[in-house]
Design brief:
Helix content is 26%, strand content 29%. By secondary structure, the chain is an alpha+beta fold. It folds into 3 domains: 3-88, Rossmann fold (3-Layer(aba) Sandwich); 117-165, no CATH class; 169-368, ATP-grasp fold, B domain (D-amino Acid Aminotransferase, Chain A, domain 1). β10 (169-179) and β11 form a beta hairpin. α1 packs across α8, α2 (53-59) packs across α3 (75-83) and α3 packs antiparallel against α4 (92-98). The protein is globular and about 55 Å long.
């Protein structure tokens, strides 16, 4: 039995554990929250900060392989583990590039990958882009936190940050690609994400994205070339903008399972989580082909409320054929926090859209202040 470690104990780690059980892996997880989604289900749960080099170094002792489920971690800790002979995938150097939005943009520009016009800005410096523009903090942002539209200079947060042209987006699409230890590469079909209009968090998504076949091919080529250039081992999830003029720009990428890939569990021959294990364990990659239309509706904490969530409408939506529910075990709801998701399968794109609309209209999260 191989002993593997996951740095980070959130819902992505939880789904990695589910897939890892099938491969008879012994899984140790590191997270600083005692009630994190992996606590209680990992074979070993280590309480500690994923941002501390020493903690990661100690966590990795005795493991055959370490992987990650988030980028906001100590790269130095992973490098120390590597220098002691523990295999780490993705390579910490890749995490170093991808954990900082500024470094990502510089890497895309240097490698010739298409991405929005940008500027690494320090307050006081002249602004080279036109307003409205997008301002992003370099690190620590997720689900739209740390991203804003600035309409004029006074809107800007006074922090060193990334400024980007505001792209005219037709669709937001992600391509998850796997690259194995042997260099084998396979892409999942494209996923189309629809965002909440103000909170920037994904409300629902669909696989496959509705796009011309030539556009799908182009996006997959970009993602596969990126995986090859980085020489990543494991998954690389590439978020792209399909612009109103029909071109592709890379928004950002993550070398780990991605929240737009949960739908692959039910709608593809191989899930992203199984594929990640296959890639990093040196096994042949699985077939990522679709066998049914799939959708995902995020269960989000309601705006303005904090407290214990409950899901009174669950049994009503579980009557719909092809619906299954995944709750992340989070004990506290906060506005737009991802608490779980609903997967829905369908025989056609139209049926899928109808089912997604229906779920959105009937399902509610209730929150009790504690
Ligand atoms: P996060 O890391 O929190 O997911 P992103 O950088 O992906 O943040 O940005 C969140 C959302 O903001 C994107 O999904 C997109 O809807 C919007 N956005 C980001 N960058 C741009 C841009 N350059 N032009 C237009 N919209 C953008």
């Amino acid at each position: 039995m191989q002993k593997v470690g996951i740095v980070g104990g959130g819902q992505l780690g939880r789904m990695l554990i589910q897939a890892g059980i099938d491969l008879d892996l012994h899984i140790r997880v590191l997270d600083s929250a005692p009630d994190s989604p992996c606590a209680g289900i990992a074979h070993e749960f280590v309480l500690g900060s994923v941002r501390e080099a020493e903690t990661i170094e100690r966590f990795a002792e005795g493991l055959d392989l370490v992987t990650i489920e988030l980028e906001a971690i100590s790269v130095e800790g992973l490098q120390r583990a590597q220098s002691k002979g523990v295999t780490v995938y993705p390579d910490p150097q890749i995490t170093h590039i991808l954990q900082d939005k500024g470094r990502q943009r510089l890497w895309y520009a240097a490698q010739g990958f298409p991405s929005p016009k940008f500027q690494l800005w320090t307050p006081g410096e002249p602004i080279q882009l036109e307003f409205p523009l997008i301002q992003k903090s370099f690190q620590g942002g997720y689900d739209g936190k740390g991203v804003q539209v600035a309409h004029n200079p006074t809107d800007l947060w006074p922090i060193s940050s990334l400024l980007e042209e505001k792209v005219s987006i037709q669709k937001e699409v992600s391509i998850i690609v796997a690259r194995s230890r042997q260099g084998e590469i396979r892409s999942f079909p494209p996923v189309e994400s629809v965002f909440h209009p103000t909170a920037h968090v994904v409300e629902y998504l669909k696989i496959p994205a509705e796009l011309p076949p030539s556009a799908i091919k182009e996006a997959q080529e970009i993602a596969e070339n990126m995986a090859e250039s980085l020489r990543v081992v494991g998954l690389l999830a590439v978020e792209l903008f399909y612009t109103t003029s029909g071109t592709w720009l890379i928004n950002e990428a993550a070398a780990r399972p991605h929240n737009t890939g949960h739908v692959t569990i039910k709608s593809c021959w191989t899930s992203q989580f199984e594929q990640h294990w296959r890639a990093i364990l040196g096994l042949p990659l699985g077939e990522p082909r679709l066998h049914t239309y799939g959708g995902l509706v995020n269960i989000l904490g309601p705006a303005g409320l904090h407290g214990m969530p409950s899901y009174p409408g669950l049994s009503a939506i579980m009557r719909i054929p092809g619906v299954s529910v995944h709750l992340y075990g989070k004990k506290r709801s906060s506005p737009f926090r991802k608490l779980g998701h609903i997967i829905v399968l369908a025989d056609s794109a139209e049926e899928l859209s109808n089912k997604i609309r229906h779920i959105q209209s009937v399902f509610r999260v209730e929150v009790r202040a504690v």
